Amino acid sequence: MLQDGYGNALSTSSVTARDAYVLGMDRFLAADAGVDEAFATAVAEDPKFCMAHLAMARNRQIRGQGKEARGLLAQARDVAGDLTGYEAGHLGTLGLLIVGKSAEGYKTARAQLADHPRDAVVAGACLGVFGLIGFSGQPGREAENLALAEILAPSYGDDWWFLCNLAFAQMEAGQVGPASGNIERSMELNPRNANMAHYRSHLFYENGEAEAGLAYLDAWREDYDRDGLLHCHVSWHVALWSLAMGDGRWAMRRGCGMLLIAILRPAPRPARL
């Protein structure tokens, strides 16, 4: 049986579809451009490949295209046939998240990760600055995020995607030293991982290295496709750093003018009743 990039069994029998799916997943996990194109190739090669439809749905949801995401989720469910246990749990978890049932989805995600810890997409939905734990608003979420990352760590080993997420969890819990080592290793393995670049910028903040952080992130984003998921957010960090360095005009010259205006614009006053 064919497997994805993390060794999880897939129901497709098309090598070409599997390879396109793996490419799409690599791009998705790196917040790179070309995600939909890769998944579309997988679907074209095997129209009944449930996981490719589902991956497109998750990508659309993350980009704020909820209606399209729900339509693609419906397609994934329509073609779901004899799924592997991993695929069935993956579909169940992402299905809840895509329709907005985050609390129930998190419980299902933890069960999925207990059975299939190398489900990177589900792990990514839980971990990180934009994950279910971080966005929960619950007290102790930094400790919970780190605890989950440490539980999963033995299953991922020296993996570029996981190491940057582990580093962020460590950083948020005050473990800056270990976080630095994991970020550096993640960068060695995949220097074009936008999540790594983003988390590395947070590490510069933690170390009080504004000038070095600005130089690094501004240089890194030069080759980052504008269609990449984090392009705007990375540019926002650059704009913030330019303000911290006392040179807002520099940000304007670097194409971050609108972000700078948004940062500096006063919040609207509440209407009087």
Describe this structure in words.
The chain is mostly helical and 273 residues long. It has a domain at 1-116: Alpha Horseshoe (Serine Threonine Protein Phosphatase 5, Tetratricopeptide repeat), CATH 1.25.40.10. The protein has helices at residues 15-29, 35-45, 50-62, 66-79, 85-98, 102-115, 120-126, 141-156, 160-172, 176-189, 194-206, 210-220, 231-244, 248-253, 257-264.
Q: In the CATH hierarchy, what is the superfamily of one domain?
A: Tetratricopeptide repeat domain
Total helices: the number is 15
Q: Termini, distance in Å?
A: 64 Å
Radius of gyration: 20 Å
Q: Proportion of β residues?
A: under 5%
Number of strands: 0
Keywords:
Serine Threonine Protein Phosphatase 5, Tetratricopeptide repeat; mainly alpha; 15 helices
Describe the structure concisely.
This protein is an all-alpha fold. It has helices spanning 15-29, 35-45, 50-62, 66-79, 85-98, 102-115, 120-126, 141-156, 160-172, 176-189, 194-206, 210-220, 231-244, 248-253, 257-264. The mean pLDDT is 90.
Task: Give the helix/strand layout.
Layout: H1 15-29, H2 35-45, H3 50-62, H4 66-79, H5 85-98, H6 102-115, H7 120-126, H8 141-156, H9 160-172, H10 176-189, H11 194-206, H12 210-220, H13 231-244, H14 248-253, H15 257-264
Helix pairs in contact: 1-2, 1-3, 2-3, 3-4, 3-5, 5-6, 6-7, 8-9, 9-10, 9-11, 10-11, 11-12, 11-13, 12-13, 13-15
